[in-house]
Design goal:
heterodimer, A: about 400 residues, 2 domains, two-stranded antiparallel ribbon, about 55% helix, B: alpha/beta, Rossmann fold, six-stranded mixed β-sheet, four-stranded antiparallel β-sheet, 8 helices, 10 strands, about 25% strand
Chain lengths: ~400, ~250
């Protein structure tokens, strides 16, 4: 009989107890694995979303916050601001502006409420959109404020179904617009459906849709030369805008500059904290499971004192006894760990389908779980095993 | 005959509740190979302590103990485990078999600790069980065996390592008269036919009567050491006890 066979027999002899102890480890391990998988999944998802928008993107919003002492109406960005950034900010590669409002859009078949955006030609490259069909806006169309639009795939589905959209007409308000292009599908971000939009030249947007807006734009988006240039680009934009807005040293910014990089860092920091907290809870669960193992092993040693005495009398060394009880503890924790990984798999796939994330149990998580359960077995098994091994054979044989 | 056991001035003191108890005062004892020795004495006489020292389960406080020429009284725990495995076989009053474990596996156990390969273990355990007449019970667990059968499994386990010295601590204490003589007859055969050495601790005069030599212990000292010229024949008593059992209508 090997130690493993002895351990299996001993555990089977106290089935319910072994099962309950295993349950503690199972839950602890599952918690650890799920937390690791959640952390990895969330990080991957945020990374993918940011890559989708462009990691080098820098956004500038007017600061709409109520601030006493600021001049009313000053909190606005204009096309002039964008032009200044384009010419003066060396760390900036491209600049685009846009304004948006929600409007009902009619096709020959249907109508649908969506975001209608006025953009410049650079919008496509800065924002990372490409065209699936048709074309973008020509210079003459932009200058002439022509009534042409490019639509996203969601809009196309809502308004045209399976019909070809390019070449068709849309009506927004009093004007009809010709569809000249269809954007390639870009997918969802946490904030918006990137394919749910109608784009038209900013001049067209201003004169046909929102004549009151003047030269103002709702948002300037710049792309830094590379991701590494983001911080410098942010600083340059801020300096340029403060000058253009004639803000003295004592006045705060009347705009907000946000980079995707900064956004990612903030998200990562929050994620680290949440993962850390959840991880700590999971670790506590695992620790309690380990204490359960130790408890049961101590009971097991106490119950089997006589057995230990017999084994010693026929020649078992301290190390033999120690190994026997350690194997038993390890068996409890590794079986618990394996079942925990199984449970984590089920929980993860349930979470994945309800959150819409890609949650995988990667090798790292499984490795960590396996290692942890072995470690828990060793750490919490060693004390009871030592206690058994140190028994005096005469005393042990007198028991029971 | 060669000298197997040599105790010189062996004493064992215990500290019980702060006061010193001298379980063994000073024991000199020689046992030659091939002897059947009974150690007798009233309870508290120190015979169990003597047994534990002889079995290397306990270390003497003073004196020396040579077993098969090896000085074992100064060995550490692991070395004593090795001595128990190589040189000794134990037979206990309570049988001390592993529960939920077959007779065959129980018999194999000492060889497991010796690191004997499985096939070899099986073969030797089987041979040992045949020797004690349990060849048709090898897959039974202790719970499925009678007291006498359990004690025979214990004897098979003690024999499997082929040890020079067998130690039996009240081996018949839990047995009826038929099985008592069964076990004693087996021990006598082991001494007479296989040349084994048996040291048996008992407080029953009938059991001691089967030994070649009776050592009496009292108050931690050997007070008498007598050779029995014609020890009681356990086999004859066994037949007698069986006949009696049949007449009364009890037993097999």
């Amino acid at each position: 009989m090997t130690s493993l066979a002895v351990a299996i027999r001993a555990l089977l002899a106290a089935r319910v107890r072994a099962l309950l102890t295993t349950l503690g480890i199972l839950i602890g391990t599952a918690a650890v694995v799920v937390v690791v998988a959640l952390g990895t999944g969330a990080r991957e998802r945020i990374g993918a979303e940011i890559a989708n928008i462009g990691t080098a993107a820098v956004f500038v919003f007017p600061d709409t916050g109520m601030r006493s002492g600021s001049r009313p109406g000053a909190a606005a960005l204009t096309e002039g601001d964008a032009a200044a950034i384009r010419t003066d900010a060396s760390a900036v590669h491209g600049v685009t502006v846009w304004s948006t409002l929600r409007a009902r859009v009619h096709s020959a078949y249907d109508s649908y409420k969506t975001g209608v955006m006025g953009v410049d030609q650079e919008y496509f490259s800065v924002r990372g959109f490409s065209l699936a069909e048709g074309r973008g806006f020509s210079d003459s169309e932009v200058r002439a404020k022509a009534k042409v639009v490019v639509i996203g795939t969601t809009v196309r589905r809502e308004l045209f179904g399976q019909e070809p959209a390019v070449g068709q007409w849309l009506r927004i308000g009093r004007h009809a617009y010709r569809v000249v292009g269809l954007l390639s599908e870009k997918g969802r971000t946490p904030f918006e459906d990137q394919d749910d939009r109608v784009l038209m030249p900013i001049g067209t947007w201003r004169s046909r849709l929102s004549p009151a807006a003047g030269q103002r734009v709702q948002l300037i988006m710049a792309s830094a030369r590379t991701t590494a240039h983001t911080t410098r680009a942010e600083e340059q934009i801020r300096t340029i805008l403060r000058q253009r807005h004639r803000l003295g040293d004592e006045l705060p910014d009347d705009f907000v500059v946000r980079s995707q990089e900064g956004f990612r860092k903030a998200q990562d920091a929050i994620l680290d904290m949440v993962t850390g907290l959840l991880g700590a809870v999971a670790a506590v669960a695992l620790f309690i499971g380990g204490v359960g193992v130790m408890n049961i092993m101590l009971v097991s040693v106490a119950e089997r004192t006589r057995e230990v005495g017999i084994r010693m009398s026929i020649g078992a060394r301290e190390s033999d006894i120690m190994l026997q009880f350690l194997v038993e503890a390890l068996l409890l924790t590794t079986v618990g760990g394996a079942l925990g990984i199984g449970l984590a798999g089920i929980v993860s796939s349930a979470l994945a389908s309800s959150l819409g994330w890609s949650l995988r149990l990667d090798g790292a998580a499984i490795g960590i779980a396996t290692l942890t359960s072995v470690l828990v077995g060793l750490v919490f098994g060693i004390l009871p095993a030592r206690r058994a091994a140190r028994l005096d054979p005469v005393e042990a044989l007198r028991q029971g | 005959m060669s000298r197997l056991v040599e105790l010189r001035g062996v004493g064992r003191d215990y500290l019980v509740g702060g006061s010193l108890v001298r379980a063994l005062v000073s024991v000199d004892l020689d046992i030659d190979a091939g002897q059947f020795v009974a150690i007798v004495g009233p309870s508290g006489s120190g015979k169990s302590t003597l047994m534990n020292v002889l079995g290397c389960l306990d270390r003497p406080t003073r004196g020396t103990y040579h077993l098969a020429g090896v000085q074992v009284s100064s060995k550490d725990a692991d070395e004593r485990a090795l001595v128990r495995n190589r040189l000794l076989g134990f037979i206990f009053q309570g049988f001390n078999l592993m529960p939920r474990t077959s007779a065959l596996e129980n018999t194999e156990l000492p060889l497991v600790y010796r690191g004997v390969p499985k096939a070899e273990r099986r073969k030797r355990a089987l041979g040992s069980l045949v020797r004690v007449g349990l060849q048709d019970r090898i897959h039974h667990t202790p719970a499925e065996l009678s007291g006498g059968q359990q004690q025979r499994v214990a004897i098979a386990r003690a024999l499997v390592t082929d040890p020079p010295l067998l130690l039996a601590d009240e081996p018949t204490g839990n047995l009826d008269s038929v099985t008592t003589y069964e076990v004693l007859a087996l021990l006598q055969e082991l001494v007479r036919e296989a040349g084994r050495t048996v040291v048996l601790v008992t407080h029953e005069p009938d059991v001691a009567a089967c030994a070649d030599r009776v050592v009496t212990v009292r108050d931690g000292n050997v007070v008498s050491d007598e050779r029995q010229v014609s020890p009681h024949d356990a086999r004859a008593s066994l037949e007698q006890a069986r006949r009696r059992a049949r007449q009364v209508g009890g037993g097999p």
